[in-house]
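<context>
A single protein, sequence plus fold
<sample>
Here is the protein in question:
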Amino acid sequence: MAKVLIATIYNPDPVLLAANRLGPDRLILLADKKPDKNQEDSLNLIKKSLGRVVDVKEVKCEVYDIVQIAEKAVEVIDLQPKDDRIYINITSGRKTKAFGLLFAAYARHDRIAKIAYNPEEDKNSIVYLPKLSFKLTASQKKLLEACCEEEYSNLTEMADKIGISRAMLYRNIDELRDMDLISTEDGLKLTDAGKIARL
């Protein structure tokens, strides 16, 4: 069983601190698609200082597209062997990248050991964030899938295709709308949160 640290990156200090405390076997860094000089320098420093003892990988993703960042992070989580312990650190980098990684951790909450943030004011402290999940029922998941896969001429057809009653479909629509996972303004559409919840 290996320890895997998945972290956002801009400044190297939080990543080095987290890696030093955790002692991971693998370090996976979410970097910008087009890193600036500061981020490139940070990546090189981490690879030089930790690369001899830790398998360091870099995954490039968008900076401001939270859904795409979450998708990339879920891919990374899913690629790790099932018995590995996965730790998340969202300290370094842009807030949007941290949110994307955090939402990916929520989408795969059962695979995550801990989610950490290191406050800037106190380099020695760690704030552990709760491991939340979307807690969707099987029929809610089917509805989210149906919303993104194909168009339906009416809700009766949708209920039949996903194999639930119309009453259950209406209840799921209300619940998912209340959770801001779907929008009903122009037909049934997934919100960004809905796109992340179905990962």
In short: The mean pLDDT is 93. The domain at 138-197 is CATH 1.10.10.10 (Arc Repressor Mutant, subunit A). DSSP finds eight helices and eight strands in the chain. The radius of gyration is 19 Å.
